């Protein structure tokens, strides 16, 4: 593996709506200290720190949170790229790839989510090294996790022929399944949770953009000529406001690439624990519960209260009587009280708050 050619692209544009009211438009989930003292974004950077050069790390996020990211990171040689508005992962990855290609046409890129929790750095980096080595040989590589239950909240990757230990041909890209299909996936042992971690050479990914997303590629190629010139910012605004469409790299690039060339894509089986920190119940895996199974951040006292999640500040006492499977999230200007089984409704709650015109709370 050539570390000097390895670049990290951290996708930090997610809204993190499922962690409302702690997560807000200007301070989303990836900028919150969930599962540690530092934010999830900082934890993502720390895992690859010293593994690649600092100047080979790229963060891409929308304008709304760029200032906050710079406040969190302070003085740094990390590259921070600002999107005018979010246009999903195909645009974001293509945009970042233009900068990397201009700096190093031989680069290999590892694309990482900014808001996941991984607690074994050594195993994580060993898995990334395996993936980079395959990508140096011209492969599209993804990291997958052996499912431990029939999850419907993740996309899946189907493995094909084994190449070597924990490395397989990637046979199929699968959308989030129904509960019945998820159980079938689990029973076969051939399907893996999609981690959202992609590894490829910049040369290969740009060729695939050209073949599979030609309109997007042409916009990127035109933009690349403006990098480092006085026209660069105007070109960025033009790209995001009128050229880019909302499209994921999963279905814009990966799915057709697998179908078009079954030998091109590899799946690396991860052997480290992982949590995508999808909603408030993820804290049950990140924070040690009290003797009644309550997950507590802040001051909480309960009587006959068990299996609750309570997030507050240390300046206010939260008390509960006879509570079970309840989520209480207390912030300075908003309070959420919800049954754990209703947490998927938070996105609908967002819509209702917006409809009421109470956008300051979002």
Describe the structure.
- The structure is a single chain.
- The chain is 34% helix and 25% strand.
- The protein is of the alpha/beta class and 362 residues long.
- The chain has helices at 40-48, 63-73, 88-103, 121-136, 179-188, 202-212, 214-224, 232-243, 249-260, 283-286, 346-355, and strands at residues 6-11, 57-62, 79-83, 108-113, 117-118, 140-145, 156-164, 167-174, 191-201, 265-269, 274-275, 295-297, 299-303, 309-311, 317-321, 326-330, 335-339.
- The radius of gyration is 21 Å and the shape is globular.
- Helix 3 crosses helix 9 and helix 7 (214-224) packs antiparallel against helix 8 (232-243).
- The protein contains eleven helices and 17 strands.
- A five-stranded mixed beta barrel has the order 6-9-7-8-10, surrounded by four helices. A four-stranded mixed β-sheet has the order 12-14-16-17, with no helix packed on it. A two-stranded antiparallel ribbon has the order 5-11.
Helix content: 25-40%
N/C terminus separation: 44 Å
Major sheet: arrangement of strands: 6-9-7-8-10
Low-confidence stretches: none
The helix count comes to 11
- How many strands? 17
Strand content: 25-35%
Order of helices and strands: EHEHEHEEHEEEHEHHHHEEHEEEEEEH
Outline the biggest β-sheet. Answer: 5 strands, mixed, barrel
- The chain-level mean pLDDT equals 94
What Rg do the Cα atoms give?
21 Å
Q: Give the structural class.
A: alpha/beta
Give the overall silhouette: globular
Element layout with pairings:
Elements: E1 6-11, H1 40-48, E2 57-62, H2 63-73, E3 79-83, H3 88-103, E4 108-113, E5 117-118, H4 121-136, E6 140-145, E7 156-164, E8 167-174, H5 179-188, E9 191-201, H6 202-212, H7 214-224, H8 232-243, H9 249-260, E10 265-269, E11 274-275, H10 283-286, E12 295-297, E13 299-303, E14 309-311, E15 317-321, E16 326-330, E17 335-339, H11 346-355
Parallel strand pairs: 1-2, 1-4, 2-3, 6-10, 12-14, 13-15, 14-16
Antiparallel strand pairs: 4-9, 5-11, 6-9, 7-8, 7-9, 8-10, 16-17
Helix pairs in contact: 3-6, 3-7, 3-9, 6-7, 7-8
């Amino acid at each position: 593996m050539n570390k000097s050619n390895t670049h990290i692209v951290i996708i930090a544009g997610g809204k993190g709506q499922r962690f409302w009211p702690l997560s807000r438009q200007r301070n989303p989930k990836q900028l919150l200290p969930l599962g540690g003292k530092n934010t999830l974004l900082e934890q993502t950077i720390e895992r690859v720190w010293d593994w690649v050069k600092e100047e080979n790390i790229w963060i891409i996020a929308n304008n709304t949170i760029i200032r906050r990211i710079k406040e969190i990171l302070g003085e740094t040689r990390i590259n921070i790229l600002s999107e005018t508005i979010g246009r999903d992962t195909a645009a974001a990855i293509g945009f970042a790839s233009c900068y990397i290609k201009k700096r190093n046409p031989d680069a290999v890129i590892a694309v990482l989510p900014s808001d996941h929790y991984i607690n074994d750095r050594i195993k994580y980096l060993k898995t990334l090294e395996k993936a980079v080595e395959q990508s140096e040989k011209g492969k599209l590589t993804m990291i997958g996790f052996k499912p431990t239950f029939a999850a419907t909240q993740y996309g899946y990757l189907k493995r094909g022929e084994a190449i070597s230990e924990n490395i397989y041909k990637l046979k199929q890209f699968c959308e989030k399944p129904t509960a019945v299909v998820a159980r079938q996936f689990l029973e076969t042992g051939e399907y893996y949770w999609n981690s959202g971690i992609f590894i490829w050479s910049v040369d290969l990914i740009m060729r695939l953009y050209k073949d599979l997303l030609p309109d997007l590629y042409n916009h990127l190629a035109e933009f690349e000529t403006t990098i480092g010139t006085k026209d660069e910012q105007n070109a960025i605004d033009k790209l995001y406001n009128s050229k880019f469409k909302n499209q994921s790299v999963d279905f814009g690039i990966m799915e057709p690439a697998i179908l078009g060339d079954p030998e091109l894509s590899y799946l690396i089986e991860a052997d480290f624990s992982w949590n995508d920190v999808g909603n408030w119940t993820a804290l049950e895996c990140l924070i040690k519960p009290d003797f009644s199974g309550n997950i507590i951040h802040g001051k909480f006292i309960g009587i006959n209260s068990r299996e609750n999640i309570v997030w507050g500040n240390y300046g206010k006492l939260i008390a509960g009587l006879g509570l079970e499977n309840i989520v209480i999230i207390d912030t300075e200007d908003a309070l959420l009280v919800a049954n754990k089984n209703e947490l998927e409704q938070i996105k609908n709650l967002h819509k209702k708050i917006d409809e009421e015109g109470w956008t300051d709370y979002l």
